[in-house]
Specification:
Helix 2 packs antiparallel against helix 3 (42-66) and helix 3 packs antiparallel against helix 4 (81-115). This protein has six helices and no strands. The protein starts with a helix and ends with a helix. It has 143 residues and is an all-alpha fold.
Length: 143
Amino acid sequence: MSQYEYEQQETQTEVYSHAAEVEIQKEWRWVNRLPGYGGEYTQHINEIAQDYQQAVNLEIEAWRIRNGQEPGADDTLDISAQDQAQAQSLRAQAHDLRIESVNKAGAIAQSIKSRWNEQQISLARTGEKQIHLSRDINRDIQR
């Protein structure tokens, strides 16, 4: 691999080093639109995003070690049995982090479902503003 190819790959790795974290945080933004939400899930969502990003980073590192693009256990670019074992260990850690983040996300989703009804969740997810009608307006509409 030439120096140019190596630098290009490093640049690409830097671009992806926070992409999953940002995408997960974007995916959960709808929670902020739930009525009466006070930010109690924000820290948990950030932790999920960071764990998932760490898993992605470990997988990238494992792939690069396994393919001789990053020094492995023997501090060389040569691919050895030690490097293969290190890459496998990194992939196992990544797998565990992914499972942990998915389980945490499931727990948050269950907690949200227990606090808000399906309509409120649906409106928050679609980004529609909720319309609160006073009793007088409601009565006039029903006539």
